[in-house]
Amino acid sequence: MEQGIHYSYEIADRPTFSYLKVLLKKDQEIKSEPQSMMFFEPTLELRTERAEGGFFKSLKRTLAGEKFFANVYYAHDDGWLALCPSFAGDIRHIAMQPGDSWIVFSGAYIASSMNLSQDTRFQGLGKGIMSQERLFILTVIADQGPGDLFVGANGAFMEWTLQPEQVLNVDNGHLVAMSTSVTMQFRAAGNLKTTLLSGEGFMCKLTGPGKVIIQSRNPREFAMWLYRFMPKPSSTS
Asked: Strand pairing of 29-32 and 175-179?
């Protein structure tokens, strides 16, 4: 068992089919993404509420690919809770200190401490179109003290710590989370021929300082690969 800032937890069966077990002590609470629960003990109470305090804040969250509602688990006494992402991969704990803020890309958020706030910001029409992702991105902020953040990867994790002005080019579909201190630009993968024929199209240019967490599988590419093997409707004359 590992010790986070607020919770004792275990990430089991990693790295391929990981799930998160959190031991909630009496009177502790944790917020999680809906439909991520595997089980919880009867000492815990589940309630569902808006992901953020205000209606429009919660609505904005859906524009980043997350849910309008969040599940909150409250411990009347000590008890275990198990959570897992919807895809096969690993789970990582991020210990957030006061003032830390992380961008969490669509589908990666699993759970967090109650005192960590969330905001959704517009990344720009141009960035949204070139990234082939959503126009809004989710930010988790430690503005009310330290806390625990749990994120999931499709596949395995890789983490980079970028120094000031250090650049890393990443396929945007592999992004999981990054410090908000990292700047993000989208550009063509190469010249016109490379951009059109390489299959890469546009890529994400990340510039430090800050941390970047990426995943070894691109969910969109994996879905397209699976689609090739799905039965197709036969044409009728």
From this structure: unpaired
